[in-house]
Amino acid sequence: MMASDGVNGTPGCRCIKEETVYQGEWLSLGVTTYQDPQGQHRTWETVRRTTRCDGYKTDGAAVVAVLKRALHYDQLILVQQFRPAINGLTLEFPAGLCDAGESVEDCAIRELREETGYTGQVVSVSPAVCMDAGLSNCTTCLVTAQIDGDDIVNIRPKPHPEFLKVLYFPMSELMMRINEYSRKEGVTVDSRVYMYAMALQQCKGKEPVQRSPGRIDKK
């Protein structure tokens, strides 16, 4: 016998209770008891952010920022930073958490300015999308922004002192340049960045990555 309808009509699936195992300043670790489609009770270890503002559906914003200048190729602006969780460098979109009372658009422009020094204009905002639903409840909004590189405020951008390196990649060769840079510098590319590059590559009718059946690159 199937259980009653659960979340969004999924037969029987629903959370029953949540227990916090560890509470930190930024994150908490919990155990969620839920009901599967067959009515069985199961548990799932879950990481949750403790910083999401009340009433918000998203934790923050990630900025797909394109720099446009006269007589120059369009460039995607990315940031490189050290991430202790993987003990290594990553290549990411500028991003950050929303402050209380701050819109997603304002969060995106603030983070872009703090991390890169540039001032941009928001073009579009995605709905809240999950980051790693098998692990956590973290969500973000993907905000596309254009930067007028010829505007006087963007001639000599001065990012706030953060442990970041601002990098520029030509949109016309994004996949190739990202692959080259990650191999040369040993950085791990954020999945959102790589999927964005793959999508652009496929729009051109090209293979997004070099095929290598059965082979996984090892360090």
From TrEMBL:
InterPro entries: Nudix_hydrolase, NUDIX_hydrolase-like_dom_sf, NUDIX_hydrolase_CS, NUDIX_hydrolase_dom. It catalyses: 8-oxo-dGDP + H2O = 8-oxo-dGMP + phosphate + H(+); D-ribose 5-phosphate + ATP + H(+) = ADP-D-ribose + diphosphate; ADP-D-ribose + H2O = D-ribose 5-phosphate + AMP + 2 H(+). Its EC number is 2.7.7.96, 3.6.1.13, 3.6.1.58. PROSITE patterns: NUDIX (PS51462), NUDIX_BOX (PS00893). It comes from the Eukaryota. The keyword Ribonucleoprotein does not apply. Homodimer. Interacts with PARG. This is ADP-sugar pyrophosphatase. It comes from Branchiostoma floridae. The gene is LOC118415934.
